[in-house]
Model the fold of this input.
Amino acid sequence: MGRRRRKVIRVVRRTLPKVFSCPNCGVSGVKVQMKGEHLALISCGNCKLTLNYEFSGRKEAIDVYNEFVDQFMAGKIKSEQRM
Ligand SMILES: [Zn+2]
Done:
């Protein structure tokens, strides 16, 4: 009997979906989705805080998240930026 062998080779990319804690509501519900080479969508599943973040250079989700938190703490992101 021929068993169908399916080898799943997963290319490990730097865009692994991870959940971060939200600077607005404190819940670990923030996802950073890479939308392009220089665009990421940051959204909190709890408080619906959403930000389209444009950046230059190459960044990983964690870098984008860190900058998002910095900007949020600096008051540059308003929580009424909701979807
Ligand atoms: Zn939140």
